[in-house]
Design goal:
single chain; mainly alpha
Length: 106
């Protein structure tokens, strides 16, 4: 996920066309806010929505119930998963890495 460095400057500069600024000023007036506060609040609200949408997962009721069922009673590991674990352990041994306490026997 991309991260943006933020400097200590508390100012942002925007270039807008006259009709865009007029619309923003009108909306700010209708909300009884100054232009800076209106633009800031609107942008912040949209930023939160975009981040939540990008980082969140929304499941249907059916999918939520299936996920809970699988968490409560996970299926037995398949032969393919067991083979992958064996290969993972061999690779880690070759590299001199410990598997860790969370690795169970297949």
């Amino acid at each position: 996920m991309p991260r943006i460095t933020v400097d200590d400057n508390k100012r942002m500069h925007l270039r807008v066309r006259a009709e865009q600024k007029a619309m923003l000023q009108r909306a700010a007036m209708l909300r009884k806010m100054d232009l800076t506060e209106f633009v800031f609040q609107s942008a912040l609200c949209e930023a939160k929505r975009v981040i939540a949408e990008a980082e969140g997962v929304t499941l249907s009721e059916r999918d939520s119930l299936m996920l809970l069922k699988l968490l409560e009673k996970p299926p037995a590991p398949s032969a393919r998963l067991k083979k992958a674990l064996v290969l993972y352990r061999k690779r880690n041994e070759r590299l001199g890495l410990a598997c860790g306490a969370d690795c169970e026997s297949p």
